TrEMBL record, chains A, B, C:
Protein's name in the database: Membrane protein
InterPro entries: Gly_transporter
Major place of residence: membrane
Residues annotated as transmembrane: 6-23, 30-50, 62-82, 89-109, 115-136, 148-164
Bilayer topology: Multi-pass membrane protein
Single GO cellular component term: plasma membrane
Localization annotation: Cell membrane
Family: Belongs to the UPF0126 family.
Keywords for the protein's UniProt record, in alphabetical order: Cell membrane, Membrane, Transmembrane, Transmembrane helix
Coiled-coil residue windows: none
PANTHER family given in the database record: INNER MEMBRANE PROTEIN, UPF0126 INNER MEMBRANE PROTEIN YADS-RELATED
Keyword Disulfide bond on entry: no
Domain of life where this protein originates: Bacteria
Length: 203, 203, 203
């Protein structure tokens, strides 16, 4: 039960980031709902299509459709309030990515994938929605332009998949998620960056 | 038989819009054919991948490949003629979207999806090709920038899925399609828009 | 064995083009690895999803993940060297596309698709990775802007699928691949272009 709750929290937060991008691009309420749905559900749908779990979970449970739709419309209607709460959203976003990378990696492992592919799919679950959001909104995906985002998701997913293989309990998953959240927030607050191409000034 | 015919008409019209975008972007004849195929078949292929109906119908019937390829090349060769017939194309485009949303929603329902997901997939069938066309052509998808487009498709698909669930006959599908066409054309001709974010001038 | 080797060479070369685009866009090392993986594996994954061969081959064999990851990071670290070797990369890129179109078309035919859809999927295998790379990097896909690229891939795939249907041996596949490489390189070196829209100056 609390797993589904966490999952829905992640979806709702991701949907909010989609709606915020939609408001900044001056899209109408429907565009905001579509971008919100795509951002909230895109990563999980990509994973499910790649492991052959179709129809994707997001299409089999009405809550997975309702939550991001409602979240997007609420953000759309009250966007000045949400625009001011950027730091809370950043924390929630990191939590959402952590939930997604752990759940995605474990689900891929349960479908019989090896450690490395399963970890990769966990990362895809965490970053896929944001990539689709940015491509649809006509901008280079934020994971390419920003502080460390995908690396913590990959690390968290890898840890979760290894824990799954070793038969460890739920506390190991919590640890994997905490690693992802902690690394991401530290990178944000300390301005850590992955290495740039040699010869380029570190911005 | 007439269902397949309608389907092929929808595919041909969508392929034409892809080829017109290709001509405007000054692509060569091959680029026009690729954009035409993607626009005509993209929505249905997306739906089929998501409901697990692979290989997609578009790859199992040669007419589904031939029709959009021929339509694209014809538009490419005679584009000044087609450029002048924008209003007829708009009507045909609305008819194509109506056919796609009804057929897509009913197919998803037949694959066991619930009412809401099936209606969503009907909408994806109708708007997916256009979204892929615009992303490949490097512009923000038109459904985000224009008059009401996706909402009528969702409404038509929802009606069709409900009619399918209630066991109503083909006339109910026609009604669902007519709702989609009528709403779309009224929105275009009266300049209806979905609500914009609060604080933004209605354009 | 040598088929897998050729396949890995194609993946490595494509991954290098992804990493080079990443360096030009000033992405960090992680962005280069992601773009490299997507470019190297994207076409094959698209094909596998469309024919229902999930999880895709790229997720079931660790070499298919390791090779493009290593290739991307090497290019990232030594990009000035690779930037100077553009002509060798062009030749390798043509070889990679030839391997992909033949292998993709034959695999689709083995999954029961008809000649035309199988050839189309062979082409998708060859050009899909580059399209995804360019969409993610925020530019119009190079296949739409450049000299003949997709047509030779389609021709090579068609020939390979026909050879597969006729039960010809591996030498026919080599011939199909050679057609693709030769046509592509001739088009590049002689400046051949597919026809542009009527009324537009041939550039």
């Amino acid at each position: 039960m609390w797993i589904v709750t966490l999952d829905l929290v992640g979806i709702a937060v991701f949907a909010c980031t989609g709606a915020i991008v939609a408001v900044r691009k001056e899209l109408d309420v429907f565009g905001a709902a579509v971008l919100g749905l795509v951002t909230g559900l895109g990563g999980g749908v990509l994973r499910d299509v790649l492991i052959g779990a179709v129809p994707p979970a997001a299409l089999l449970d009405w809550r997975y459709l309702l939550v991001p739709a409602v979240a997007s419309v609420v953000v759309f209607a009250f966007h000045p309030t949400f625009g001011r709460r950027e730091s809370q959203i950043t924390v929630l976003d990191a939590v959402g990515a952590a939930v997604f990378c752990v759940a995605g990696g474990v689900k891929a492992a349960e479908y019989g994938l090896g450690v490395l592919p399963a970890a990769l799919l966990g990362m895809v679950t965490a970053i896929g929605g944001g990539i689709l959001r940015d491509v649809l909104a006509g901008r280079v995906p934020v994971i390419f332009r920003e502080e460390l985002y995908a690396t913590p998701a990959f690390a968290g997913a890898l840890l979760a998949v290894l824990a799954h293989g070793a038969g460890l309990g739920w506390w190991a998953y919590v640890g994997a998620g905490a690693l992802c959240v902690g690394w991401r927030l530290l990178a944000l607050w300390r301005g850590w960056r992955a290495p740039l191409p040699p010869g380029l000034q570190q911005g």
